[in-house]
Design a protein that fits this description.
Blueprint (H helix, E strand, L loop, with lengths): L36 E6 L4 E6 L12 E5 L1 E3 L3 E6 L5 E11 L2 E7 L9 E4 L4 E8 L5 E6 L7 H8 L25 E4 L11 H9 L3 E7 L22 E5 L1 H12 L4 E4 H11 L9 E5 L14 E5 L6 H9 L2 H13 L10 E4 L1
Parallel strand pairs: 1-17, 3-12, 3-14, 4-11, 14-16
Antiparallel strand pairs: 1-2, 5-6, 5-8, 6-7, 7-10, 8-9, 9-10, 12-13, 13-15, 16-17
Amino acid sequence: MISNNKSQTNLTVRDFWYDLPERLIAQEPSAERDGCRLLVADRKTGTLSHHVFREIIDYLNPGDVLVINDSKVIPARMIGKKSDSGIDMEVLLLRQIELDTWEALTRPGRRAKIGTTIVFGDGLLRAEVVDVVDGGNRILHFTYDKSEGDIYTILDRIGKMPLPPYITKPLADNDQYQTVYARERGSAAAPTAGLHFTPELLEKIKEKGVKIAPVMLHVGLGTFRPVKVERIDEHLMHSEYFSVSQESAAIINDAKANGGRIVAVGTTSSRVLESASDENGVVHAMHDDTQIFIYPGYRFKAVDALITNFHLPESTLLMLVSALSSREFMMQAYEEAIREEYRFFSFGDAMFIC
């Protein structure tokens, strides 16, 4: 288990508040993935400039490495019924423990006592509550007819994509909430900074001499859990599973040794890199759970630049991007984005912090 950031800070959650007009919360993706807007935040000059996302290629140099999170979102939200009473139950799968055993969020939680059975899809899938863990999440063990396929096959039939609550418009297509390079199933939410890339843009980036290194973090509750304490250094992150292959570690370390930058696509890729790197910035091939919480005062070991979306006020994601630049510069950038009416959150526009 990779532990929390132990940096001390006097910052409070209110230091990361900003007012966002509701009209700026994106309800659907851009018509073209790489046609959204891009705010470039240059830390060296303290300047902000406005672009279209596909122009990100102009800010990447030969020898750089683009690190992407290739986790794939699963239809992790299901509506079932208690077997004994028929009461509706909502389940959101968060983390796979074994193939058919998952940590999940259940609503209403008080109805999901140990021993409770929840039935989905007219009996196609059944879940038994086998444990209650810290924070109130449930451990569910699933049973189903194996001739129907594995748990993922069943989820594809009866589950729904777990869109954040601020997105109220239904998806036209599930692929809208999936990166074009998504590979390993297991996320309860999309690594949304990657939604802006197209196969064509990725190919042009590679042709420029930029290497692409996939890593994996299954996005769960830890990425979105609200900070409920006043002092941010008292917040405890939920654990999420990640992995780095030997090949990707070698690509990243070779680039570092030769003066290239490590450009993380999204906060999830950043958390993987910082979890897998040692104090010298060397990234190691590994797989583990991470609870790393990055906020101002943290010294980045591997990440040099970051492509990211615009995050919720008072969120751990806003704290992470503020750690890479500074809180003051990020709040200035957010003020500029609101003034220029950028689109915010999962389906919104992007920022490049360089």
